[in-house]
Amino acid sequence: MSTFKTRLTSIFFVLILARVSHASDQTFQATVTAHPDTEFNETQAVNFGRIATFVGAACSLGADGTVSGNCDSGGASASPGQINFSGITNNSIVSVSVTGGSSEFVTLTTQSNIQLGALQIPLADNTPVVVYVGANANNFGISVFGEMEVIQTLVPGSTYTNDYTVEVSFQ
């Protein structure tokens, strides 16, 4: 009888396992949307006014448009730059940096203020700052100013430019 019980028990377990091993499955999809590209709108170009022509001459441009050093306002043309951003959604977290550069004749070291609604956040050259945008995505920009220095003698009356890079990346 015990052999019969053992066989009956084995058959019973095989039937149970056979029933359990039959299952259904279905695949579903999860979605995500990539952040859109940030759009930059330069509403005011950075202008340091007029600078002396000798190597080592330096001109500092303040956030309020005042200049100091070996320069003058150039007939009131000196002004900080203004860049506004779009394509950023409310409640985003972004990293912002501004980096000056060098050309053959001048170097630019930037200083900036991130403008987020009524809040002003200082930003040093090539130093990223992480910002929570909150509900201010439509009121988000940056003002750019800093220091321009002559590294090769300038031709009097000529205009010189230097690039700088603004980077905004989602975190």
CATH class membership: Mainly Beta
Task: Tell me the number of helical segments per DSSP (H or I, 4 or more residues long).
Answer: 1
Query: Which secondary-structure class do the elements indicate?
Result: mainly beta
Distance between the termini: 72 Å
Unreliable segments of 5+ consecutive residues: none
Annotated CATH architecture? Sandwich
The outline comes out as elongated
Number of DSSP strands? 12
- Average residue-wise pLDDT: 87
CA radius of gyration: 32 Å
The share of residues in helices is 10-25%
Tally the structural domains.
Answer: 1
What percentage of the residues does DSSP assign to strands (E)? 35-45%
Signal peptide: 1-23
Protein name: DUF4402 domain-containing protein
Keywords: Signal
How would you portray this structure in words?
It comes from Agaribacter marinus. Keywords: Signal. The mean pLDDT is 87. The protein is 11% helix and 40% strand. It has 171 residues and is mainly beta. Strands 1, 3, 4, 6, 8, 9 and 11 form a seven-stranded antiparallel β-sheet that branches. Strands 10-7-12 form a three-stranded antiparallel β-sheet, with no helix packed on it. A two-stranded antiparallel ribbon has the order 2-5. It has one domain: Immunoglobulin-like, CATH 2.60.40.
